[in-house]
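Protocol step 4 of 6.
Sequence for Lipopolysaccharide export system ATP-binding protein LptB (Roseibium album) entered exactly as in the expression construct, tag removed. Do not edit the line below.
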Amino acid sequence: MLVLEDISKQFGGVRAVSHVSFEVAAGEVRGLIGPNGAGKTTVINLISGLLTQTSGTLFLDGELLNGQGSADRTRKGIARTFQNLRIFENLSVGQNIEVAQITAQSEGHADSPAISEAIERFDLAGKLAMPANALSYGHLRRLEIVRALALNPKVLMLDEPAAGMNEQETAELAAGLEWVKTRFGCATLVIDHDLKFIMTLCDRITVLNMGAVIAEGTPRDITTNQDVIDAYLGEDHSNAA
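Step 5 output, structure tokens:
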């Protein structure tokens, strides 16, 4: 569903992303992990069109994305959340979701009945009339996910969705995303530093270090990969995972 081929991004003399290639299939949950500054968010920004790659090619469902801006990519089926929340604070919870639904409908994407289920699943049903800025931090994270799902995406990208959540909230989020995988069937790309969350949720994981892919495989493959242990996990975290 999503294909990156030899993607690089240069900022002046700094190469933030270096020859990154990977694929995410429909229905697959792919983790993207690595140390701070490894280039993870830059990769998501390149996929979503907020940044333009210096070289390489991107494909969505077989269609070349090169040259298309972020709005065009959203309309074609790429949805995302942000590490720093970007909610319409002056709108209600329901209106935040409706913005995405209207966008999807204007592009001829059928309004999925699964959105009503997602609102229930992510504990927003009783909060639709509330101002978005009155939600707790954990529910704001959930609102961003439901709003992204309301676009009926082919690819859903989540940047640090569990950041700032306690253990119970993270477990509930993981269960909700397992449901998303079954109900929506979109390709999902997840960045997070919570290794338990990532290892439990993801089918496969791509590891970045200094802008380059150093490993790719199942969670078990990743936790036993010495390059990943040296660059990111450390022996203790590897054993725990």
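Step 6, annotate. The chain is about 40% helix and 25% strand.
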